[in-house]
Amino acid sequence: MEEYLMTINGQGTRGIHNFKVINPATEEIIAIVPECSDGQLEMALDAATRSLTAWRQDVTKRRKALNACAEVLLSNVDSLAKLLTEEQGKPLRDSNREIRRSAELIKDFAKLEFPVEILQDDESRRVELHRKPLGVVAAITPWNVPIILATLKFAPALLAGNTVVLKPSPFTPITTLKVGELFQEVFPPGVFNTISGRDSVGAKLTLHPGIQKISFTGSVQAGKQVAVAGARDLKRVTLELGGNDPAIVLGDVDPKWVAEKLFEEAFWLCGQVCMTIKRVYVHESIYKTVVSELSSLATGTKLGNGMDPETGMGPLNNKPQFERVIELVDDAKRSGAKMVTGGNPLSGRGYFFPPTIVTDISDGVRLVDEEQFGPALPVMPFKDIDQVLEMANATNYGLGGSVWTKNIELGQQLAARLDCGTAWVNQHGSVGMYAPFGGVKWSGFGYEFGKWGLDEYFQYQIINSVK
């Protein structure tokens, strides 16, 4: 069994204590990884602090280092993708895309410019806006797409001149630790540190006074705890939390076409993505046909180990999430909901739960009201557009939502009435450097991607000169 080490001050670091990582497809132990001790956490933060002064001096060197990181990922894409599938469960082709997409994002961030802005310059006064790094950034990532989500934190943070201590989820730490090891050849010691451990390590990291910025992606419950921790000494905080994204399907669309799109966006990565479709409202005129098409797609999906190229959907990532999906589906059954497909976990090893299409369900049932983060999709009919918008917005979540219609102008008008950070028309989940991504209400605050994501890692300084 390969040994995975933390990277602290540019050096591979073993743990005094360790914990196990499980392959969710087989439930076998695939790695023993370090549990970061209090002393090692101090070492990582001290190294990050000491490296700040030199690192922030030369943006050209920072860009060069980031581009080198992208090339390192691309040179190791096959081995990293294999690790990612083993610990996360997703199909190998998805892991491969994740590593490649991460490299693309790093290169995209490295291109961003942030010149001094001249706010006023006349005969009496010159006012300049300068962007300066915050300091040491704590980046804490979840287990669903760990490398992309790490990239969205460390790439802009490092470009801005900050240093980073990155902690992945204890369910998927090994690919991140391997990336940290590979990046040792790129960064000066202390600039990019990777630590591993269970949730208590993350809590200590967020509370540490040496951290000036926390960027966290995860559950609403954990995000609230991070916000409280940051408030103790007024750390800057970016939170990208859960979602309960609605999709509203009008009666003018082709049922087969829209069912294929809905299925793809609802069941990607077993539905374990914050911005996937979590509940669907379909106009009554095409409701039965859409349900039938969704059901055909669900029954035609092959579940299996992500290493098998024939696998359409892998397992849920971990036992707690597996048990939560079972709990929510069983609660829906007790409420009278109908399981058109699926509805029960597969027997045998692995956290496998088939794509489950649920009807005869409504708001007020937990599977509709809560974020299931799994392969169980409630599909509900509607007649009145104002009423369905009210139902779509009747949630504490506000990450994304979508409207599906042939009438683009109407779709845009309805999308604007959704209470969410991103509203899509005839698509769902499309994000990139072209637009900021973030949530409202309990789905978090702050932004990722593009110049907006970069600005999360700066503090402004105004230089105001009288002539």
What does the model show?
With 467 residues, this protein is of the alpha/beta class. It has two domains: 6-241 and 441-466, 3-Layer(aba) Sandwich (Aldehyde Dehydrogenase, Chain A, domain 1); 245-425, Aldehyde Dehydrogenase, Chain A, domain 2. Helix content is 38%, strand content 22%. The protein has 16 helices and 20 strands. It has helices spanning 38-50, 52-55, 59-75, 77-88, 92-111, 146-159, 174-182, 199-207, 220-231, 255-267, 287-299, 319-334, 366-369, 385-393, 408-415, 450-455, and strands at residues 6-8, 11-13, 17-23, 28-35, 117-121, 125-133, 136-140, 163-167, 192-194, 213-217, 236-240, 245-249, 277-283, 338-339, 356-359, 376-382, 400-404, 422-425, 444-445, 458-466. A seven-stranded mixed sheet has the order 14-15-16-13-12-17-18, with helices on both faces. The protein has a six-stranded mixed sheet with strand order 9-8-7-10-11-19, sandwiched between helices. It has a three-stranded antiparallel sheet with strand order 5-6-20, with no helix packed on it. Helix 7 (174-182) links the parallel strand 8 and strand 9. Helix 4 (77-88) crosses helix 5 and helix 4 packs antiparallel against helix 7 (174-182). It starts with 5 loop residues before the first strand and ends with a strand. The mean pLDDT is 97.
Annotate the secondary structure layout.
Layout: E1 6-8, E2 11-13, E3 17-23, E4 28-35, H1 38-50, H2 52-55, H3 59-75, H4 77-88, H5 92-111, E5 117-121, E6 125-133, E7 136-140, H6 146-159, E8 163-167, H7 174-182, E9 192-194, H8 199-207, E10 213-217, H9 220-231, E11 236-240, E12 245-249, H10 255-267, E13 277-283, H11 287-299, H12 319-334, E14 338-339, E15 356-359, H13 366-369, E16 376-382, H14 385-393, E17 400-404, H15 408-415, E18 422-425, E19 444-445, H16 450-455, E20 458-466
Helix pairs in contact: 3-5, 4-5, 4-7, 5-6, 10-11
